[in-house]
Amino acid sequence: MSNFQEIAQQFTQYYYTTFDENRSNLAALYRDQSMLTFESNAVQGTSGIVEKLVGLPFQKIKHQVATLDAQPSSEQGGILVMVTGALLVDEEERPMNYTQVFQLQPDGQGSYFVFNDMFKLIYG
To answer: If DSSP codes are grouped into helix, strand and coil, which group holds residue 77?
Structure first.
């Protein structure tokens, strides 16, 4: 097994920093076959995913990762990543808890792309 945990940590840090600063820059992480399910609404393809993320109804956001678990997910070098944490949007003072799962696939050029992305707020 290679350094899947390190790759998952680097990916997660990059993803949430980019999401918090400029969501449109996340386009490089997705491909046309990628799929995002955001609060039970699925969208496929880079342009649709970025449109969904950029169109979310808030201006400012800050993710705080609480846990990160990773596993190798395929013989082709895929990595399954599960994140839990809290996020603050706009001027809200109470953070909302969330969970997010990523299926990363190697892109054949030494990097990874997001094949699957599932996001869910945790209420209660």
So the answer is: coil
DSSP state of 56: S
Whether residue 117 is predicted with pLDDT greater than 80 in this model: the reply is yes
DSSP label at residue 21: H
Closest CA to 1 of 51, 73, 52: 73
CA 92 to chain centre: 22
Q: How far is the C-alpha of 83 from the C-alpha of 119, rounded, in Å?
A: 9
C-alpha triplet 76, 35, 71: angle, nearest 5°: 40
Q: Exposure of 52 by Cβ count < 10 A (0-12 exposed, 13-18 middle, 19+ buried)?
A: middle
Q: Report helix, strand or coil for 27.
A: helix
Whole-prediction pTM value?
A: 0.93
Give Rg (Cα) of the chain.
14
